Amino acid sequence: MLEILSLIRSDGDPHWCRSVPNWDRGPWLETLVGLRRARGNPRPRLISSHLPIQLFPKAAFASKAKV
């Protein structure tokens, strides 16, 4: 899914996908390092997570985020 979204974000250009590691393109929300990295990424951001829906931050559902 991250590869597909990365290609959509880069208008189909695979250069960004090949040159930037997965953990920088879509950092994990549930880790402190990943959260800091995600906040530093330019918008629109890609964020990875395996959190169950019950543990996902409530603010994400009140925002314009695509989940």
Instruction: Give the structural class.
Output: mainly alpha
The residue fraction in helices comes out at 40-55%
Largest sheet: none
Nearest-integer average pLDDT = 90
How many β-strands, per DSSP? 0
Distance between the termini: 12 Å
Q: Which percent range describes the beta-strand content? A: under 5%
Count of runs of 4 or more consecutive helical residues: 5
Order of helices and strands: HHHHH
**Rg, alpha carbons:** 12 Å
Regions with little confidence, pLDDT below 50 for 5+ residues: none
* Oligomeric form: single chain
Summed up, the domain count is: 1
Sum up the overall morphology in one term.
globular
Report what the structure shows.
This protein is mainly α and 67 residues long. It has one domain (1-62). It has helices at 2-9, 15-19, 22-25, 32-40, 58-62. Its EC number is 2.8.2.-. It holds the Pfam family Sulfotransfer_1.
Outline of this structure?
With 67 residues, the chain is an all-alpha fold. It has one domain. The protein has 5 helices and no strands.
